[in-house]
Structure formats: C-alpha cells, structure tokens
Amino acid sequence: MLYIVPTPIGNLTDITIRALSILKKVNVIAGENINRTKILTKNYEISTKIISLNKYNEKNKSKKLLIKLKNGENVALVSDAGTPVINDPGKILINYCHQFEIHIVPLPGPCAAITALSASGLSTSKFCYEGFLPSKSNSRRKLLSSLKQENRTIIIYETPHRIISSIKDIVKELGCDRKIFLAKELTKKWELIRRDTSKNILLWLNNNTIKMKGEITIIISGYQIKTKSYLSKKVLKTLQILQSHLPLKTAIKVTAQLHKASKNMLYKHTTH
C-alpha cells in the first residue's frame, strides 16, 4: 500500500496517533528532505528507513518506489510539513499507483491552507487554492488580474522575501479595500495572524520589524458586486422626470437600469 501521511506544519504534537502507527510499520518513508523528516521520526523514536523524493529526483525515485510497492512493500509518502502533494512532490508516484492498481490510503491531517482559512473569518463555503504566486511581478499581476472577479475566497502561499511585493500587486490588481487574512508560522512559537484591508496590511508589513520567517498563507476575500447605498441627486432627478411620463413601476425599473441603482431603495424613496 501507499500511505499518504500528513505531518505537522510546525508543532510536532500535531501528528495523529494513526500517522505515527503507519510511519512505524511501513517498509520505507518517502520524504522531500531526509533531515527534516528525521526531526519528526527521532522525536517519536521511529526507525523506519527514509529516502528522498523531491522535485529533482521525483521521476526516478517514483519508479524505484513503484517496484517496492509491486513487490509487496508498504510506503509512506510525507512532505516536509503538512499534507503531501499540496505544492509538493508525489503526484508521479500516486499516478503510478493508480495505473498499476496499487492501493492508496490517504490520511487526514495538518494543512496550512485549511488551518489559516478556519481562522480567517472569511467565507468558507466556497474557496479556491492558487498555491504560490509567480516570482516575477508581471506574471504575478497577470494571475491576480485574472482573479479580480473571483467571488470565492482565495488562498495563496507566499515566501518571506516576496510577501511585500505580492501584497503591493494585490493592492494594484484587486484594490486597496480587499479583506486579507495573513498567517505566518502557524502552530509555531512565533505564530502571528492578522486581518485587515489589503492597503492596511501593506502598511503594517512596511512598518513591522518582525522578521517574516517560513511560509506565509494569505487568504483574500472574494469579489463582491458593489451596490449604491444611497441615491444621488442625479438618480433622483432621473426618477422624478420619468415618473411624470411613466407608471411608477416602469420609472423605477428604467432608473435602476440607467444608474445601476437599487430598485428597493427607489421604491422606499417614493413611499417616504
């Protein structure tokens, strides 16, 4: 079997009892960075052999792991932190398993994107995950521009050295009033979370002396159609003119279409 085993994103005690049991009993653990995985296994006295499976050797190592699986060995796939394959290697091995009908067992567990989303206070009924933003500003702005009218909550990962540049591009492409929830070093000693408008988040980052370590999760509120909360003099003048020539219902309908105003507000105005 191939077990997909999530590991803690910072706090080693966030490992599940089932995950520890599987890591102890499998024949081999496949992880991105052997030394990073050893921190976890040594802490829980797990002596299972660890081999590297990273973006540089994924194709070759996946073939070797496939041979082990076909010979009846059990393999645990882990990442440096969190749920494997989410922006991490492992897809090739998983597709081999599907191709050769090798049983895959995914375990539930830590994931920075979902952990951050749960604390954001933004809509969780519909959301999209965009992974890491492009490193170059032009490509990054192009992607953000394509998300301008995305009405689902947007989840993004970012690195410390690009966080300010990325927030600047978010302000430029999505506007200065978008709600943003920023989470860094989740579950760790220096965990920090903050929610504000994109403009204020940028100001806070520029003025903050806290060193931004580790991966950062950014949650962005989805696009919302802005409706006029008041009736301008121009709107009321249009309504007044149309009312003198048309039935009230028609006058309100036409005014609303011309000015993209709320028909309910127009009705309320005529009843006062």
TrEMBL record:
Chain ranges of the RsmI HTH domain: 234-268
CDD domains: RsmI
Organism in which the protein naturally occurs: Buchnera aphidicola subsp. Schlechtendalia chinensis
Matching PANTHER family: RIBOSOMAL RNA SMALL SUBUNIT METHYLTRANSFERASE I (PTHR46111)
Cellular component, GO annotation: cytoplasm
Chain's role: Catalyzes the 2'-O-methylation of the ribose of cytidine 1402 (C1402) in 16S rRNA.
Localization annotation: Cytoplasm
Chemical reaction(s) catalysed: cytidine(1402) in 16S rRNA + S-adenosyl-L-methionine = 2'-O-methylcytidine(1402) in 16S rRNA + S-adenosyl-L-homocysteine + H(+)
Pfam families: RsmI_C (PF23016), TP_methylase (PF00590)
One MF annotation (Gene Ontology) recorded for this entry: rRNA (cytosine-2'-O-)-methyltransferase activity
Keywords: Cytoplasm, Methyltransferase, rRNA processing, S-adenosyl-L-methionine, Transferase
Protein name: Ribosomal RNA small subunit methyltransferase I
Sequence similarity: Belongs to the methyltransferase superfamily. RsmI family.
Record domain Tetrapyrrole methylase: where: 1-200
Catalytic activity, EC: 2.1.1.198
